[in-house]
Structure formats: structure tokens, C-alpha cells
Amino acid sequence: SAYRKNHSTETALLKITNDILLNMNKQHVTLLVVLDLSAAFETIDQDILLDRMSTKLGIEGVVLKCFGSYLKGRSQRVAVHGAVSEKFDLSWGVPQGSCLGLILFTIYGSELFNVIKNHLPNVHCFADDTELYLSFNPSKEHGDVKAAKSMELCVNDIKNWMSKDKLLMNDVKTEFLIIGTRQQLEKVDLNCISIGAVDISPSNSPIKSLGVWLDRNLSMDAHITRTCSTAFYYLYNIRRIRPYLSRQTTEILVHTFITSTLDYCNSLFYGIPSYQLHKLQRIQNAAARLIFRE
Question: Which PROSITE patterns does the record associate with it (predicted)?
Fold first, then answer.
């Protein structure tokens, strides 16, 4: 859902967490696998991309040649302390930092959904971040084993597709979390899933997905704790230089480093307990006192 109007990491996480919470209401447990791609933008095969634009999107003729001209014939040099390297060609990848480069990456990775739909009902991709999730009833016999097998087959097919399309999955950094209520998690006996040649055990600690920390019960405790810790760190450092700052400058720093931290994906805080809200309110109160020097 990246690079689309009215879509962001927040809407992506809302979709994922809402699906998981609905499964928890049905007394189901969800397997969440967060895939990690290595240098995704730099390893795109330009010929495969142009072929996909032609066969999948129907782009032909002069327009396709324009895209080919945009992608091919690029080169770069490396400069260090005034010394400049020889020019070398960029035969792979799409230009990063450009609007068109982001769209081209999305087109290139669109084939991923055709791979996943044969195995899983739910997946969400945001640029090069991919979240696979599958729910099951832990009360059913071998429900966890069947779910794990489906996830393994899906990930292996993804790896095969990536190998063919010149992308690389980082098996070691791929993370796996089992999410559910405490009562339902007690019924699950799943030690690991196989990702390529690596056996990955379910994480007992929170994992980070699109900038938000998710725990086994989707309680948001871990994310709020880390958010408050980051905010207090910035408050401490701004407080040290506050005597040299005007109110306006202090306000700008607070909004830049603290308010932005609190606001990131704050719609996920809906329905959290009052003790968690109190932690966030303490940050805002401290920030207000810092600005007005009370």
C-alpha cells in the first residue's frame, strides 16, 4: 500500500492489527512473519522490470522506450577526499529518491501477490516490507502444525521467486511472532518454522514492523515504553540547552523530536488502558513545562 494517496505506514499497520484483533476475538491465534529484503531497490533486474511493464501493464512503443531510457545507461563515481574513482555502469536497480523509482519498485514486486495467494489469505506489503500472517484455531488438533507448514511453503515459494527475479531475502533478519490471548497461546506448541536453510523460533520479545513494536498479545506495551523512553531522552537533551533557546525555538524542537514521536501511528493507541495513556500524557505535560519554563 506504499506510495498511494491516503495510504501510509499507519494505514498499513491499522489493517494488519485490525485483522489480528478480529482473529483474537474469534479465539484464534495468528502467525506473523516479517520478511526482510537485502538491498531491494539496488538489485532490481531492469530487463525483467521492462518486460513486466509490457506484459502485465500493457505499456508498449515509445512509452516503454522512455522508461528504458530512464533506467538504462546510468553510471556513477565515488569521491573520497578529492580522489575520484573510475566511472562504472549501474546495470541494476532503480533510481532511489525519485517518485518514479518508488512506483517502478512497486510494479516489480507486484508479482509477489501471485505467489502468496496460493498459500495464504492475508499479506500486506509496504515498499520492501512484507508482512505475512495466518490465523488458526489452537483448539483444533494439529492446527498450529498445519498453519506453520502453510507458512513455510509460502516463504519457500517466495524465496524461489526472489531468486528468479534477482532479489534476496535475508533469512537471519526475518522475524516470526505468534500473537493471541494468553489463554490461547498456552495451547500452541510450535517451536520453529523453517525459512530457507534457517530455523526461526517464535520471538518471545516484541518485534518491529513498520516502525511499531508488536508483542505477543498486541497490547502496545512495548511500543509505548520505547516511545516514552525516546521522548524522555530528547526532553532531557533539550532541557540542557533550554536556557539558551527562545520559546519559539524550543517549541520547534519539541514538535520535531517529541510530538512527532508521540504522533507516529497514534491511531493504534485507540482503546489502550488508562495506565498507558497516563505514560503518554506525562510526556506531553513535561514538554509543555519545558516550552513555558514552568
Answer: RT_POL
Rg (CA), the chain: 23
Domain 9-42+100-214 falls under CATH 3.30.70: yes
Task: Show me where the domains of the chain are located.
Answer: 9-42+100-214, 46-91, 221-292
DSSP state letter for 255: I
Distances (CA, A) of 114 to 118, 130, 152: 7, 14, 16
Which residue, among 169, 145, 149, has the nearest Cα to 158 in the 3D structure?
A: 169
Give one word for 127, left, alpha or beta, with left for phi > 0 and alpha for psi -120 to 50: left
* Residues 208-249 pLDDT 10s: 999 999 999 999 999 999 999 999 999 999 999 999 999 999
Residue 62: strand pairing partners: none
Contact at 8 Å (CB) between 30 and 178?
Answer: yes
Q: Residue 257: how many CB atoms within 10 A of its CB?
A: 17
Number of Cβ atoms within 10 Å of the Cβ of 50: 18
Q: What is each CA distance from 160 to 64, 145, 154, in whole angstroms?
A: 28, 23, 10
Closest CA to 38 of 102, 111, 93, 116: 93
Return the C-alpha cell found at 176: 516470526
Q: Can you give the pLDDT at residue 7?
A: 83
Integer Cα distance of 92 and 89 in angstroms: 9
CA 237 to chain centre: 29
